[in-house]
Fold this sequence. Notes:
The complex is a heterotrimer. By secondary structure, chain A is an all-alpha fold. In chain A, 54% of the residues lie in helices and 2% in strands. In chain A, helix 3 (88-96) packs across helix 4 (103-124) and helix 8 crosses helix 10 (250-261). Chains in contact: A-B, A-C, B-C. Strand 1 (22-23) of chain A pairs antiparallel with strand 1 (40-41) of chain B.
Amino acid sequence: MASKEQREQFKLYKEDVERRGKQFYPYAMFHDTIMSFVVVSVIAALAAVWYFTAEETAGEAGVLGPRYAEPADPATTSFVPRPDWYFYFLFYLLRIFKWPESVILGTVGIPTILMMLLFALPFLDRRRERRIVRRPVAVVVALMVIASMGILTYKGATAEEPSATSGEALLVGNDMPTDDEQVVAGADLFAKVGCLNCHAYGSQGADGPGPDVSEVGDQGKGEEYWVQWIRNPQSLKPGTSMPAFPNLTDEQLQNLAVFLEASKSGGGGG
Amino acid sequence: MPKTKSKRQQQIEAVALYPVDWLEERSGLIGGLRYFLFRKVPAETNWFHTLGSATLTAFIVQAVTGVILAMYYKPSAELNPETGKPIAYESIETITNDLTLGWLVRGMHRWGASVFIILLFLHMGRVFLFGAYKYPRELNWLVGAVLLLMAMGEGLTGYLLPWDQTSYWATVVAININANAPIAGPFLGDFLRGGQEIGSETLTRFYSLHMLVIPGGLAGLIALHLYLVVRLGITPPPWTKAAGGYEAQPNGGRPARTGLVNPSPRGNGNGGRERRES
Amino acid sequence: MADELERPGENGESQDPAAHLPAPSIWPFGFALGVALVLVALIISSWVIVAIGAILALVFGFLWIRAATREVRATPPPEPAALTADVEEEEGEEDDGEPRLSRSLFLEGATLGIGAAIGGIVTLPSVGFMVLPAFLDQEYEQIDLGPLESYPRDQWVVAKFRGTQAQPDGVARRTAYIRYNGQQDGTPSFTILSNRCVHLGCPVQPQGLTDEEAQMIETEAGGVELFKMAPSGFGCPCHGGAYDIEGNRTAGPPVRALDRYKYSIHNGRLRLDEPYSVGKVKGTGSDAQIAAYDLVDPGQHVDGPEQFFYPYVP
Lengths: 270, 278, 314
């Protein structure tokens, strides 16, 4: 229950408002109206920009994304799902918990704790003090929540995805030259074999479980090494979770190796 | 300004005010509206306090555009035999590309959703910084928190309706996240899907939730939220004197002024405020 | 609460200041528990639990009604006239208060009871209709995947087919990764993996080259598309899950191995039966030892201590 002090203070507040407050209409409502006008204008403007920069074709994105994607296809083997932006923080949280034992923390644990904090706030912070500088704990906690949500949302928004489906797209997307045929063929394989599901390559691919390989050429390991590595990683590094690709032909492996050797910092890819 | 009015003016005024008086006498609604409009708010009320009403505006935009979209949208996952596309997806295509101004209504609904969520968070941040969730406004914070969850529920259910790849797979993941909850999760998942797999039942289910169930709850809770705001008053910013101790300030109010709706000067005890203590 | 249990039935002389309100009791909780038990048991179709729940609900409901009507049935205590006069204004009789009180209590009880009945009649069927169809009669259909000759030995294929006739064609499309392992004890052996990631249900992709040209097989249920492929494993592009060729998790967040389909052979044609969940697979191909479980949603553990998070799966 509220203390006597709280009740008295609220009574004082009511009296004070009555004595020297301003009328809601038109003084406060004037601001509200302008703000609402701005809101409606922004919404209409977003709609216009979204519509006029995108194409009628499905998936052709404008400044604010496509009008619609392809029709729903539960049998797809190539689509990469993404949530709406206000669930990006959750999306990235799920990427952070990359061990089976911890999945439930990302899906249920942390969201539930956040929700409970949200509901419990008025009962946790019961002091009368409202001045910001005198509520250090509350403000620091709030800033931390905002910062982490912001970072997660940002990371979720910029998280790389295996979007390139051809070698040209992969090379062009990373500002790399497309004049060497072997490099293009290798990049094509890289995109089609599914390497991007585990490895990031510049602006594309998943940032895990495998390492970022966009500057792997800097290591100077040579083409022979990469051929051997892709054919049978266990022979070079026992226990690695990289799968072996014995089905690729020698020529295909050679192309991949050339492509990887050509992936250097400075020469694009980063 | 001369206060005397000609007889003709008085007659016109009487005729114009007749419906207002008629309504007031039978419902008391005009008095309620007057109380709402002419109630006093703290003198320090500023731009930060507009976030709440801006959120309400965004909600109204969603409601209006949503109702219109519902006139054209068809929530069916069946394939159109001629084009081979799902009917729901096709109706979205038609709304966007073919119908006059359909792009604007759908665009406003789509982007209004994002703006609504952003404004909700900003409004919540303002309330937090001002400490406006403290006594006696705890309940209003709780109502607001429920509103936030319901708004995210609207986002989730609405996202599926275009029935394209993005919406389908985002919903798959979202439902599976819910299905991960201990003990109740598997039941929750099946309930949301309307079965073991996402299918046409999921689409109609989400449509009903998005169109009727959650908006109804939202509207009711918004009404409660506003009622509590009016009843408990607006929190002045914490950096003002008023927040500290409410010292008496003679002549602290603003000078009296006449306006369009409230022609009498403030402070004379009329202008609708006489009803305040009734 | 315990106090209430100590003095049952006969004691009508409650000195509660709010005497017209039913005294607090635990019976409603027992009643609610019984009803909840019935609902859960209906979902997991366990008739024993339905019976237990129904008995609980009946017994506690009876006790509740008994407790709630105790004051009506017993001789009511004399009450201050002001209270009753307040409730029953239209009644102008000059009684001594007793019959008026019981009448007001009766009206109150009847109003609340009938109100509850109205609520029940409207709510229970609606809620049941909303909830139960999602759980009952959920069965998997058998899917014809074409003649065995379409599946060369040790060749992986992506098969896209219509998974159920109960859904429109588009939504009903499913994908499975299939490999024919040759004969095992005289019967053909297949490895059939679902492409649903067991982390959160995203579409899993093969790690390796896939043919772009489909081989079409005519079936009664709308045909099957087969794409030859040479995978080294499977990967999920959503949250970075990785699986080996038998569907075991090798990296990332998946909580178990990829789901599989049961299969059978009829008239030389491969037929898919129901899908099931897999804990782990030892060995490969036709020698694989599969830890099989009933199908559960992605993200739910079937083994290890976490399985106790999901004791009942509908």
